[in-house]
Amino acid sequence: MRKFIKAGVLALITVFMLGSFTAQAGDAKSGYNKQKVVYHVNDVHSATAAFRNIKNHLNAVGDNNADIIVVTHSSGAFALVEGAMGKKDKKSGKVYEFDGAISELANRGVKFNICENTIKGKKIDKGKINMNATIVPSGVAEVAHLQQQGYVYVKP
C-alpha cells in the first residue's frame, strides 16, 4: 500500500512540474514567453529606429504576447507631436511618418507616454500631441517606475 501511495504522490509531482514547465514555455508560436518592455526614446533621431524595432519585436513575439510601453522625453518627445517626420529612407527616398507608425503600433497594443516636463520645457502645444500618447509627469521617473514593475528596459 505504501508503494502505491508513494507512486501516486510521485506521479502527481511529475504532472505538476510538467504543467508548470509548459505554462512557462510561452504562448507565442515563436516560443517566446510573455514580455513586458519599456522602450526609452529621448532623441527624435533614434525614434525611427525605435518604432521599427518595436514592429519587429511584435512580429517576433506576437501582439498578444507583449506589453510594450514607449516613454519619450527630451527631443524624443517630438516624435509624438502630430505631423513630425523621421529620417528619410535611403533606398526609397520616403520620409518616415511618425503619425502612421504610432497609429499602427497603437493598434497592435503599444502604449506611448510623453513627459510633461518636456512638454513645458520645450513649449510643445498639448493640442498637437498624438492622440495615442499619455502625458506622464516625468519621462525618466516613468522609465524607473516601469522597471520597478518588472518591465525590461530597451534603449534603441
Architecture (CATH level 2) name of the largest domain: 3-Layer(aba) Sandwich
Count of DSSP-assigned helices: 5
Low-pLDDT sequence parts = 4-25
Number of strands: 7
Biggest sheet, open or closed, and with what strands and sense? 5 strands, parallel
State the order of secondary-structure elements, H for helix, E for strand. Answer: HEHEEEHEHEHE
| Cα-to-Cα separation, first versus last residue | 62 Å
* Radius of gyration (Å): 21 Å
Average residue pLDDT = 85
The CATH topology of the largest domain is: Hypothetical Protein Ychn, Chain: A
CATH class of the largest domain: Alpha Beta
CATH superfamily of the largest domain: DsrEFH-like
Secondary structure class reads alpha/beta
Shape field: globular
Q: Kindly state the percentage of residues in helix.
A: 40-55%
Tally of domains = 2
Q: What is the percentage of strand-forming residues?
A: 15-25%
- As laid out across the biggest beta sheet, the strand order is 6-5-2-1-7
Describe the structure.
The strands form 2 sheets. The chain has a 5-stranded parallel sheet, sandwiched between helices. It has 5 helices and 7 strands, in the order αβαβββαβαβαβ. The longest helix is centred in the first third of the chain and has 23 residues, at 2-24. Helix 2 (44-61) runs parallel beside helix 3 (98-107). A hairpin with a 6-residue loop joins strand 3 and strand 4. It is 43% helix and 21% strand. It has 2 domains: 1-26; 34-154, DsrEFH-like (Hypothetical Protein Ychn, Chain: A). The chain has helices spanning 2-24, 44-61, 98-107, 116-121, 139-148, and strands at residues 35-41, 66-72, 85-88, 95-97, 111-115, 133-136, 152-154. The protein is an alpha/beta fold and 156 residues long. Mean pLDDT is 85; it is low at 4-25. It is globular, with a radius of gyration of 21 Å.
